[in-house]
Amino acid sequence: MLAEERRQVILRMLQQHGIVKIQDICRLTDCSMSSARRDLQLLEEEGLLHRVHGGAQIKRALQSEMTMTDKSSKNHDQKVMIAQKAAALIQDDDVIYLDSGSTTLELARILDATKKITVVTNSVLSAAVLSDHGIDTIVLGGRLKNNTRAIAGADAAVELSKYRFNRAFLGINAIHATDGLMTPDPDEAAVKRMALRQSDKNYVMADSTKFDQVSFVKVADCTDATIITDDNLSPRIAKRFVNQTFI
């Protein structure tokens, strides 16, 4: 098993149990104790866990997530700019997936029925806005998260697998040059992965404060999508994302 695969196993164990022991890592991944300790050290350096005697425990902050009200009030001007860039990419007769999130919600707010599009979304907030604008909208079914008003879980991912999209626009919580696109919730991560798989062109909408950050669950590699961001991304951080396409 590759080192990156081992670390993903460790993170999944932490998600399930809150704590992980070195001997369990060795047993499940068939690695040495020294390899397991190196993995834990690296994950701690990246802020993904806290090492304790004989293993590690979860850093709860990695699973925390602000409410939509709090998210929407942060970096609002940048989110509107990103939404405008995204809207310019949409063509007549497109079928698009619109993910949950405060930045994708701004995209819903500026779309109108002049472009004959169909939108599939897991956001009840975006669905209401799109409906008000007269846009043909399909809402996924599944578990509703109270804090973000996002529909997530296995049922939503299975339903999403029935559709194909010209373009998918995803929200994301953290973007890291090594660890990729990340989110706090495994259920939302599963829905995002399915959207990426079912779409011809993938876009992540993220303001510059999301870069050089980590969260709990990896969704995909950064190069699996074009990143639409604002003009405040520093060249120093951008250089870390080799082979990455930005808009």
UniProtKB/TrEMBL annotation:
Q: SMART domains in the record, alphabetically?
A: DeoRC (SM01134), HTH_DEOR (SM00420)
GO MF entry, a single one: DNA-binding transcription factor activity
Domain HTH deoR-type, by residue range, is 3-58
InterPro entries according to UniProt: Carb_Metab_HTH_regulators (IPR050313), DeoR-like_C (IPR014036), DeoR_HTH (IPR001034), NagB/RpiA_transferase-like (IPR037171), WH-like_DNA-bd_sf (IPR036388), WH_DNA-bd_sf (IPR036390)
Q: Please report a single Pfam family linked to this protein.
A: HTH_DeoR
In which domain of life is the source organism classified? Bacteria
Keyword Transcription regulation on this protein?
Answer: yes
Keyword tags: Transcription, Transcription regulation
Q: What PANTHER family does the entry give? A: HTH-TYPE TRANSCRIPTIONAL REGULATOR SRLR-RELATED, TRANSCRIPTIONAL REGULATOR, DEOR FAMILY
What is this protein's name?
A: Transcription regulator of fructose operon
Species lineage, top-down?
Bacteria, Bacillati, Bacillota, Bacilli, Lactobacillales
